[in-house]
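ok so for the tutorial part 2 we go from a plain amino acid sequence to predicted structure tokens. step 1 is just haveing the sequence, like this:
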Amino acid sequence: MKPDHFLELIASAVLMLVILSLGWIVVVAYQPGWLRLPSLTGEIVVILGLLTATLLLVSVVALRQTRA
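step 2 — the prediction. this is what the tokens look like for a chain of 68 residues:
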């Protein structure tokens, strides 16, 4: 397996997690007491970390493809 392919698989998995987290945000907006993390700060940190990881991974994959 090429390193670029492995990186693309990781990026696609993280993108799927972002889609699931957006669905979770919508569900929690309509059902506030359902599927919440223990603290609001923890929820914010998890979502921001996931979005940051996605941005970095997609940027690295795009940069590597343009350099090839």
